[in-house]
Each structure stands twice: as C-alpha cells, then as structure tokens.
Specification:
Pfam families: WCX (PF25583), WYL (PF13280). This protein is an alpha+beta fold and 338 residues long. Helices cover 40% and strands 24% of the residues.
Length: 338
Amino acid sequence: MSLQIQRYQKVLESIPCYPERISSLELKERLQSAGLLSAKADEKSQLRTVQRCINAVVADHASIEIDDASRPYSYQIAKGHRHPVKPDGMSSVVSLQVIEKEIKAMLPPTLRSDVDSIFSSLKQVNTKQTKLWRERFCYFQSEHPLLASTVNNAFFKLIETALLNKRDIAFTYQKRGAAEPKNYLSTPLGLFLHGNSFYLVGLIPGTLDDFRIFALHRIHSLKLSFSSTKTLEQFNIREYVQQNARHFFGGDIQKVVLKIENYHGLHLIEETLLSTEQKILCHENGYTTIEAEVRDSHAFEWWLMKHANIIEVVTPLTLREKIIDNLKAGLKMYNIQS
C-alpha cells in the first residue's frame, strides 16, 4: 500500500464522530507516531503534506464537518452520521464480516496485503456495540469457497499503464487444457472480476471489433509493447460482458418450470425464491411445480446440478436435456450405467 494511501486511511479513521473533534495538529501528530511523515522534512513541509491529505479526505466524505472559526482547524463526523470506516453497532460489524469473508476471498493472494491492513485497523475499534456484535454475530459462507488463483501483482500495474497510455501488451498465455503457453499481443480495454478470478478484455491489435477475453492467472509473463494503432475511446466493460459473455454473466431471461420435492426444497418454494416472478403451478404427491423467470446461464445450470436430487427441470426442453446429459456423464464417472 502506498504511503499516500496509508496517510489517507490514518487521517480518515482518526477523525472522531460528534461531539468529539480533532485538530489538524493532532492529526499531524498521529501521522508522525505511525511513521507516515518523513523525518527529514521540515515542519512546514510536514504540515503541507498533512493538509493535502486532510483536504483529500474532506473532499471524499460529505459527512465531515470543519470548524474554521479558529486555527488550527478542527474536524469531526457530523451529528447523526456514522463513521465512514470505523464499525459501530451491528450493521457495521455485520457488513465488515461479510466483506472480509466474501470480497477478500475473491482477491488473488498478491492483492490481499492492502486489504488486510484496512481490516486490521478497523478491528482495533472497541466500542461497546462492536464488542457485543463481534461476540454475538458470525457469518458463514453458503458455498464452498475456492481458493483464488495466483496472479503476478505486477500485471495489474502494467495493464493500468497500458490503458492510460494506449499501449499494447505482449504476454505468454496458456489456454485451459493446453500443454504449453503461447505468445499473444493485445490492446487492453479493461478488467473484470468473476468469482475470485480476474479477466482481461482486449482487442486484437489493429482492429476495433475483434475482442478476446484472457484469464489473468493463465498469463505467465507480461510486458508493455508499442503504442496501440487503434483503440476504443469509450468502452464500458460491464455492458460488454453482459451482452457478449454468457459464461460470465448469462444469457436472456427465460421462463423455467421446475418440479421440486417439498420437504428438502421448501425454502425454494416459500422462502429463498428463484425470482420475483415465481409462481406455484400445482401441488401433488409431495412435489410442487413452479414457474420462474431466470437468466439462461451456466451458473443456473450448475445450480440445478447441485440440487438434482430434489429438482426436476420440466421446461424448457433444451435445458432439461442438458441436465440429463450432465447427470449421465456424472454417473459414468462413478462407473454407473444409466
């Protein structure tokens, strides 16, 4: 984590909530104690550094009030506002635990150190409420978490540089199932995170419509190449993935009819519904048939396989046949003939 970011974080977490307040000189002392100000700089230089950091924090957080009636100025989180980073009470502790378990687990190991320092500083806050809810609340992930793939941390900086300066990148990439990596050249357009894996969207150099998607964890080496001969001035990576990459986002909304075993699937019928448009078609012989609108996606197919012992796909027929084929393939893995 850069020194500038560490100063920013320290200033933000040091500003107290109403009615307490802290002065710019006190903030300077806290930065000094944390070793975040250069000992070689003179007093004026240190104060200028501190004030720039304070100004950046205030600009980003409208809840911070400034008392400029006298010098040095003092700062506080306005009355009625929660602290932007310090957990206080159940909602903050709950959010912190969920973020730590879900978001942190998605990141490659090389990117976790910055996040670790943030959580470490937040956990040092010990109000009555935070102590209570750390003991009386815990979060468990609903799925088995896969370990994040390892990605060279330098790749992110190189890709950022390429995006900012409109440079191509040259890299060696090993496709899934390939025995050896091969050399590639790409005009990068952006990154997206799917599950706990990062992916790069890029153009074949010299084109404006020939897109490729690369998994960052399959890149062995990467370096900056020449300036891009062609690139897109505007590119919304979310829109591109939603419209062109079914594997990651899914296809069109489709209506499905499912037959669900009542006892084990009650939560799917009455509690955690598949969609807001879900409706019950009939009850019979311990089963309930429902109709729901879901996205045509690999994720939904995998979900159906997970619950194959309690859910039967009635329609659409193409989806039903795909699940049957997957089940047959699964039985064959166990040397069971269907």
